[in-house]
Amino acid sequence: MIRNQSNGAARGALLAMTLSVLTACGGGGGDGPQTGQLSIAVTDTPIDAGITKVNVVFTGVEVKPENGPSIRFDFAPDDERTIDLLQLQGEASAYLIVDEEVPAGRYLWARLHVKAEKDVHDSTVEYEGGEVYPLYVPRGAQSGLKLVSGFVVPAGGDADFVIDWNLARAVGAPPGQDPNRFLRPALKITDRAESGVIRGTVPGGLIDSNNPATCAGGNRVYLFARPDEGEKAIDDMDELVDDGRAEVEATAGVSYSADRDAWEWVFGFVAPGPYTVAFTCSSTADDAMVDDYPEVVDSEFDFAAREDVTAEAAGDSAVAF
């Protein structure tokens, strides 16, 4: 885990004003504490497509209490955070703000402010061949990347949240936009204290190098939310077709451990609940801009195995395909 200790210079007059306005937001009465401590970190769902670095420049964090104005934590120019999201896979994360005092109560949204201008090499993506392209977030410099999922900061307590950036959905190359690569806000937020871990293994016989005739390449496990009762059909990574199938929550790379002689994968920061995990040895054929599955003519993408699993709060769940 990477922990950034510097918190920027953003409390000042705005926070003082907000504290005075929102004294009723703490959920407690009388002389009880009306503030809590807020920490927000980022993590990454990894990506294929020959990408080796995704450097994002973060300039601040903004949160919106249910009552009252939003609160911004703007980083000083020499304290902007350039973070390679590809280094934050599995159970790794990087903090943007740590133990900031904020009004207690319910919050409607969080927003990440980034530098990602069109035709400017601030945030960038780098490929295996060494090519480096600008990452562009439409309206990102003005409005930031907004998560509409609400959360609660307890009065007199700590709130520690992790924002998962699904890069497999986030980075794209729309036609006619060269040299820019678009960075979409494919984000979800999880309470670190309540989140669980799902990990597992894949039989060597399913790995792409053992099945070159049937695998397009790319060993990856996909995570899908499952209904409390019954099943739901799973889908590929596409964002373009709403076919009623379960959307991909996250993906995890599969790597070989010589110490344990096993092909392993892990999802960190998973909200409690029922899930389906599915393994593919053809993730390189899953184009996020195209519907590749199921029964798509000429598509090389398919799943080789799937299992149901339940993530436990602050627990560790294991799956063997």
How many DSSP-defined strands?
Answer: 22
Give the helices and strands as they follow along the chain.
HEEEEEEEEHEEEHEEEEEEEEEEE
Strand content: 35-45%
Shape: globular
Average predicted confidence as pLDDT = 84
Radius of gyration: 21 Å
Query: Quaternary state, please?
Result: single chain
Terminal Cα separation, in Å?
Answer: 28 Å
The stretches of 5 or more residues where confidence is low (pLDDT under 50) are: 1-29
* Main β-sheet description: 10 strands, mixed
Strand-pairing-aware structural class: mainly beta
Counting DSSP H or I runs of 4 or more residues, the number of helices is: 3
Helix content: under 10%
For this entry, give a set of tags.
321 residues; mainly beta; disordered N terminus
Summarize, please.
Helix content is 6%, strand content 44%. With 321 residues, it is mostly beta strands.
